[in-house]
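> Could you send the Alkyl hydroperoxide reductase AhpD prediction when you get a chance?

Sure thing. Input:
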Amino acid sequence: MEPRITNPAALLPDAVQAVNILYKTAHSAGVPNATLELVHLRASQINGCAPCVDSGARAMRKGGESDDRLFAVAVWRETPYFTEPERAALALAEAATRLADTPDAVPDAVWDAAAEHFTEQQLAAIVLWIATTNFFNRINVTTRQSAPQHWG
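Output:
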């Protein structure tokens, strides 16, 4: 599948500065990087964003993430590989990504479970990172950006 246009960030370079600020802000609140990367990967899987799934999984692997955890992100509920805080963040990422799927988009139980493990500042960062990931996903899927080819 061919992209519809060049990546919008390349066409509108001022957007890159704003995206960099969002990235820096979300990653400065004390949430473990692995948690933010898991949230990014799961939201990107849900949205079918090939470049984000590809880059997210590669970044996690480069950061030392195990194949067991990488391969199990889509089925995190059925595996033993994730901590309770990670599970709470993944549930929040799924709910906030699938806003239109249910009348109570982010149920209190999902929010409360995340609030048990993260401070308000950390929750703000997780929500900001979920929103930023969904922003990237929507741009990439809409413009049909593809994952880069890494094999021969």
